[in-house]
Amino acid sequence: MKKKLIFWLAAMMAIGTATMMTSCSKEDTPSDSPAVVPEPTVPAARITETIRKEKAKATVYNFEYPSLDPYGKAATLSGSIVVGDEVEAGKQAAGMVLYNHFTVFQKDQCPSRGDLNIVLKVVGSKLIAVAPDYYGFGSTGDKNQAYCMSRTNSQSSVDALLAARQILKEKGYIWGDYLFNLGYSEGGQTAMGVVRLVAEKYPDIKITHTVAGAGPYDIGETYRQLVSSGETSMPSTVISTLLAYNEYYQLGVKNSEMFLDPTLSNIPTYLFSKDYKRNELEGKLASTKISEWIHPSLLDFKSSLSMKFMEVFEKENLSKGWKPRGDERISLVHNTLDACVPYANTTQLAEFFKRAGFTVDVLFTSNRYQDGMVFVFPVVLPPLSDNMGSHEAGAIPFVTELITVICHYLDIKPWFTITPEELGGV
């Protein structure tokens, strides 16, 4: 696995409120009314740093932009714009990529703090890439991350795209109409959240093709399956999900009501510090056996505590409750052996699109580029090494598919290879 993988060959591994304000006179205002505190003014989008990546032949513009926090209030978020040398100011780029990053825990792993691995590869196709940090990283690194909260993270992604377009325009860049929406794992969930958000609120944004891999599109179903199996290959993701939903949905549950020691005591050191990468967390934070660190009340789906979480999980469910545009083109890639994000997430999402009138096809098909098509790309890949479990291995066909899709629309040949070690940047 130390040799470079050529991913178009790797495909052969596949088995298939604003608030209305009213004014009143002093006489109308009760003397004990609290003072109205205006929301803070959020600065316009701006470049904070320009970094030259000579080896990748690309320029990175780190930027901050106005968006919303998990409570729906104004916030300044951050991200990166990456422009390859093939695209010069005044010359037209082929289009843009919105890259939604995978699960990260270390503060230096977000795009604007340096983790741009796969993004630097993608821009070699003459596309300009936009990569948001999400809430809880970059400019909001002092906050707990809004982990796997699809509505919050998709809003940060769409706002990053809009801000990046304005920044690029001011710098003299021009680009074509292609817009690719990509993401794996948490990024896959965010990418599908972008599809939902654009359908609901942004009629002027047209996504050419979405490639989403192994996303927890239904957090409730993900939780049910993992608890029922009793095992998860990435306990840090389950813990982070419970922490984020508890905090940002303001459930008021104490950590001691969710977790057992030593995991309970390990959370501040290994999660909240943001000093550790995911592969450094597992084993130190918690074991793969869920019952050893989760509170018994959360193992009982009929308990009031479990039902409280299930209620808010349902609010983020991407497999129901919204109407997709009829012209979407979507590829869903997932390893059927995934021990972190159950494959049912993909089958349920595919069924949702089928009920909405989409054509759902499985395995290899040229029809994936037609309007109203959801292409499901299931693979069977066991863990490939100690650092590449079944979930991580699923990133191989994801990269294969994103290359295949981009090559089709841009009419180019595959333009990069990547090593297994570099898959950490997916």
What's the helix and strand layout?
Blueprint: H1 7-10, E1 46-53, E2 58-68, E3 74-84, E4 92-100, H2 117-122, E5 127-132, H3 150-170, E6 174-184, H4 186-201, E7 209-213, H5 219-229, H6 235-248, H7 263-272, H8 278-281, H9 304-315, E8 329-335, H10 344-355, E9 359-362, E10 373-379, H11 390-393, H12 395-410
Parallel strand pairs: 4-5, 4-6, 6-7, 7-8, 8-10, 9-10
Antiparallel strand pairs: 1-2, 2-3, 3-5
What does this structure look like?
The chain is of the alpha/beta class. Helix content is 31%, strand content 19%. Strands 1-2-3-5-4-6-7-8-10-9 form a ten-stranded mixed β-sheet, sandwiched between helices. The two termini are 17 Å apart. The model is unreliable at 1-37 (pLDDT under 50).
Main sheet makeup: 10 strands, mixed
Radius of gyration: 22 Å
Order of helices and strands: HEEEEHEHEHEHHHHHEHEEHH
- Roughly what fraction of the amino acids lie in strands? 15-25%
Portion of residues within helices: 25-40%
The assigned structural class equals alpha/beta
Count of extended strands: 10
Low-confidence stretches: 1-37
Average pLDDT works out at: 89
The helix count comes to: 12
- Spatial shape: globular
What is the CA-CA span between the terminal residues? 17 Å
The neighbouring-strand order within the major sheet is: 1-2-3-5-4-6-7-8-10-9
